[in-house]
Each structure stands twice: as C-alpha cells, then as structure tokens.
Amino acid sequence: MERSPYKLPSQHGLASLGYFLLSGYYPRITWRTPPVTEQAYTGSMEYVTDPNLRPIVAKVEAGERLSFAEGMQLFDTPDLNTLMRLANLVRERMHGDKTYFVHSIRLEFTNICYVGCTFCAFAAHKDEARAWDYSPAQVVQEVSRRYLPGVTELHMSSGHHPNHKWDYYPEMVQSIKAAYPELQVKAFTAAEIEHLSRISKKSTLQVLTELQQAGLSAMPGGGAEIFADRVRKQIAKNKVKADKWLQIHDEAHSLGMRTNATMLYGHIETLEERLDHMDRLRTLQDGSLSKYGGGFHAFIPLAFQPMGNTLAQNLGKTDYTTGLDDLRNLAVARIYMDNFPHIKSYWVMIGSELTQVSLDWGVSDIDGTIQEEHIAHAAGATSPMALSQASMVKMIQNAGRVPVLRDAYYNEIKVFERNEIQAAD
To answer: Domains (ranges, CATH) in the chain?
Structure first.
C-alpha cells in the first residue's frame, strides 16, 4: 500500500479501507496525505476522478471557503479518494499528525426528563424503576467512585428534571469544585440552560453567569440534534429551538467560555439539512471569533443509535449508520467548517476501529476515556462504557498519529512521541 508522496490513495486503497471497516483491522497507515507542502500538491488534479470536484480542490488547496452548493458536492461525490485527501489536507494544515484526547469522567446526574425526544432511550419518568436522581452530595460520591489520577474533565449532561429548583444546579457545581478543585466542569447543554432559565425565571445569560461563578468551566455541545424545523418538530419538538440554542452558545462565548457543537444524523434528516446545520454553526463561529476571540472548540457528529427509542420503532429502523456515511460526514464537516479548530470522532457511537480510520478523514480529536457513558448505550451503542488512557494512546498510535493528552480547553498536557506508551495510565 505504499504510494508516491504526491499521489492520491488508489482504488486498491479504498478497497482495503472497506476490508478494515468490515474486519476491524487497521494497521499503521502508509497511504495518508504527505506533509503539506506546495510541492506536494503540484499536479494534484490528475488524481481527481469527479470533474465536479476540480474547482473545489483548487479552493481547498488555496485555503478558500466553500459555498453551500460546493458543500453539497462533497456529500454527493463518488470520488471518496479526493474527499478523504481534502479532509486530511485541512486537518494536517491545522494540527499535523497530532490527535487529541482527554482523561475524563462522564456523569449523568439524573435520567428523569419530561421533554420526550423521540430518538432518546435514556430518559425516564420519575416513577419508573430505572430512574435515578442524585443529590449534590451523591453527585460528588459518583465523581469519587469514577475518579482516577490524572482525570482533568468532568462532562455532565442529563435530563430536564421537572421538580428540581434552580439552587440545586449551582450548588451541585460548587460541591464538585469544593471536593475536586482541579477538575474542569464541562456541563449543561444549551437545552438544559434553557430549562434552567425557565425554572429560575432568569435570562439564559444570567443562568450561565451564575453557573460560571459557581465553577462551570465549559459547555458541551448536546441538544443541537438537527436545526431544521421540519426535523426538529418530529424528533425534539419540546426541546430548545435552533435559534435559541445558537443564542445560548453565543452568550457562553461572550463570557469567555468555550463550547462544543453536535449534530445527530442518520435518522430522518436530508443531506441538505445536515449541511444547513453545519452552515449555521460556521456562521455563529465567525461571529464569536470576531466578537470574543474564541467560541467553539469542536464539532461532533453523533450517529443515531436505533435501539429502544420511538423514532427508530416508528421508522422500522434497526440498522446503524454505515461506516462510509460516518466517514463522509466527518470529512465534509472538516472541509466545510473551516473555522472550527477540531472535528471530533465520538468512539462511543461509531466504535474505536472506525474512529481510527476517521483520523485520515479530517478528525483531530477522539473525545476521552469517559469513565461510564449511559445516554448512547441506552439506545444501543455497542462500544465499551469507558476506555483506559493507554487504550486511547494505542488507538491513535496504531493509526499512525501522535497522541496528545489535553484538558477541556485543549491545553496540551502531554504529547506522546511515536511508540511511547509508558505512563499512559
């Protein structure tokens, strides 16, 4: 599989990729795009098999922004070699071979929720036997149970509890920070922030301000789903509206918080609606960078999990997203969302093997060790509940990349040189 440093992966390379996706075997890559130099891309048009991509290749190689129509060409093209190469080109311009991960805890403090999203298998009514609801003291106990030396991030997102008072939330953050002052608390999606605004009768900006004062470091990107009204009305009609979700993230950015953004795909949305979602995020990021000097850290496509939820049942859907759909989605995101520092591959939903492959399709972050994830697993995710730090390092190294342990703000804690695994756990 060795190739000329100036030549695109061959069709044999894509056939081998198919083998990797089916077998789970993914050896060290030898056909990645070479280090980005002007010489390396001289004559690259020779290897573009889709003539519709030729002007797009020229724009991407020149560092120019793509239009919406050009983004749709990326979704439509049969030329997967070129799509992969372009995504990898953008990724390596930004980060070289570095691939980021975080030593993290995932905690859902309640699964009680009144919203009723049709894609969700996690939510429970408060009288169900499977329901749980932790007090602030119990949240600290759960953090203690999952805590490992070197953990830097606590990621919390949960249900919209119908009965908790506003004071419960800042008290919970304060309790965590009192017990673990070094932990960066990344918590409360924009959907949850809107819920807290309603129960507190405070503006969403005031809610964010008070949570930040209590110790909130950053916001996760959940609750975005798909912004298109047509889809949102069918899968999350009682959840925060798209414009409000975007407003809340703008407000968080105005406070100096950094946030992520997600997109739930692989259900009833169209490709145009996926790209519309990316386009709205790209526009907001332009504004945040201009006004505040920072905004989103990462975009995280989330593959729909088809088990235990009414949306899948109504659709008669039992199959998961395909590997090539996952990879194309990540690649389009990396090329189109040119102002996002990172595109993240969420190994919980697509598996560690495909996550390795995705590092050639524009991905520069693979999330974290997680230490117990329940939301995706409730809907049928077949991945482990957690991975060790050593496993994360090996996953990245075996894909031919350089692992970088980071914190919630992408400060680099440790760069693992090639074949260095010692002290990974």
So the answer is: 11-95 (no CATH), 98-415 (3.20.20.70)
